[in-house]
Automatic annotation (TrEMBL):
It comes from Roseovarius faecimaris. Residues 10-218 form the YjeF N-terminal domain. Its cofactor is K(+); Mg(2+). This is Bifunctional NAD(P)H-hydrate repair enzyme. AMP binds at residues 422-426, 455.
Amino acid sequence: MTELLTAAQMRAIEQAAIESGEVTGLELMERAGRGVVEAVFEEWPELAETSHRAVVLCGPGNNGGDGFVVARLLKEWGWDVEVFLYGDPARLPSDARVNYERWAALGEVLPLSAAPSAMTETDLLVDALFGTGLGRGLSDEFQDVWDSHLDCIADGVAIVAVDIASGVCADSGKEIGIYAFVAELEVSFHRLKQGHVLGDRMGRAIVKDIGINTWQHHGSQTCEPVTLVCIEESSLFKTPFDHKYDHGHALILSGGAGKTGAARLAARASLRIGAGLVTLGVPGAAQMEVAGQITALMLRRVEDGDGLASVLEDERLNAVCLGPGLGAERARELVPMAVRAEHTPYIVLDADALTAFAEEPEALFGMLHEGCVLTPHGGEFARLFPDIAEKLKAVPTKGPAYSKVDATREAAARAGCVVLFKGPDTVIADPDGRCIINSAQYERAAPWLATAGSGDVLAGFITGLLARGVAPMQAAETAAWLHVECARSFGPGLIAEDLPEELPKVFRDLGL
Ligand SMILES: NC(=O)C1=CN([C@@H]2O[C@H](COP(=O)(O)OP(=O)(O)OC[C@H]3O[C@@H](n4cnc5c(N)ncnc54)[C@H](OP(=O)(O)O)[C@@H]3O)[C@@H](O)[C@H]2O)[C@@H](O)CC1
Ligand SMILES: Nc1ncnc2c1ncn2[C@@H]1O[C@H](COP(=O)(O)OP(=O)(O)O)[C@@H](O)[C@H]1O
Ligand SMILES: [K+]
């Protein structure tokens, strides 16, 4: 399980480790600096071959302290290193101060304002200005250095950020102020921070172990750390003795004639992910259109709310998906019937089933129960949770900024069910505050998922897993993970139809 921490959680863990006597702050700083140098040589092996030039920009806190360690280690490696400090050395925190002095025995420390001229001729730029202690946006004092770092990017200079690029909030991934740096490589310590996987982050973030033994330090945390999705393959197995009804029966409600494609995509996805049976609930006018397009899928006529209520009297139908191509009017009529159905434990609401309640989201939330899963994209999220979306969209002036994790947790608590907030950084939360991120960034990038209908497939995947008896939170996270794996496995040229068809290969690769 990969944990992601906030700045406050990291500070608490660090403090607990130091207080326990396990390690000193100075040792942690030394390991952090060493980790950065190791990471640089791993990322750019050519830099390890001979000595080069480095410019190290140090800030007024412990991030700057790590920078002094990096400078010293590179110097010992034979490099030509220039160090620039923002702020007064006398006011550095104690560990950073020790490393400032150690460096000062080897070389000069110039004020940050002198850095731009050195930055024109460097092979490596080390951004050690601010890390998890970023409290506000960088002032205009940083403009020249920031401009010069853009020139470094254009010139192909290797740029490494210590912990996180300066000016980027470690909790939210948002840029605070206008002078946020960009780094090709971010080297974080102990665990990635939430900000490394939220938002449109550039570059690549990696973690270096600094020898903190986490598990014993979590007791004091008020909020469990967010984790990256980690799927349990066992929830996907079918045993040789299973009957199709052991894997549930999903019902996917379709819209009217000419609008049935989205529901058919979701239905196919439900079947592929292993639901025992999948039925499309179709209005009479669309029956012929759908019947001509399906084989293993079944079809039931569902004209209106009463029709749905009577179909759901069949206790074997245990998961229902409403939204893809449903139409707002039909959604307003069918959603209340589905969520109140006595024998139907699981409901997925997507697309039109969310938008249909934009005028009265509270009415929707009043009906939902813990077997429901909402799967909004950004627009749908803003329609259902306008105040939360406003907070998320607001341009932050201080850190830590309100994050997509905060927003999704707040939405799940309000809705009273699991909310999966889509994007390359899909965040999934339950009403108790459990939160998981499915990151489609760095080596898991899946840009071809930005294609019409891919969300319908995701809704179908979740519904299929729910039908199979997987609990809502786990169904949402497993489906989101498989969705990205299918896209990555298929590669460029992917359209939504390809996602369910790629699932057998992904399953085989998982050893199912
Ligand atoms: N936790 C761990 O286990 C380990 C942590 N380690 C390292 O420590 C880093 C965290 O160190 P940190 O807490 O000292 O914070 P850091 O990011 O250096 O900045 C704080 C300073 O910046 C200042 N300041 C803030 N914003 C500003 C602005 N916009 N403009 C101007 N000033 C601003 C702020 O001043 P103030 O807000 O008080 O005015 C304060 O002086 C972490 O990222 C990692 O690299 C490692 O050594 C290994 C173990
Ligand atoms: N650039 C991207 N990288 C990774 N995943 C993406 C990207 N763009 C979209 N997605 C994913 O694709 C799906 C799109 O869903 P949605 O916006 O509802 O599309 P549609 O309504 O067309 O089905 C979501 O699961 C989202 O997380
Ligand atoms: K930094």
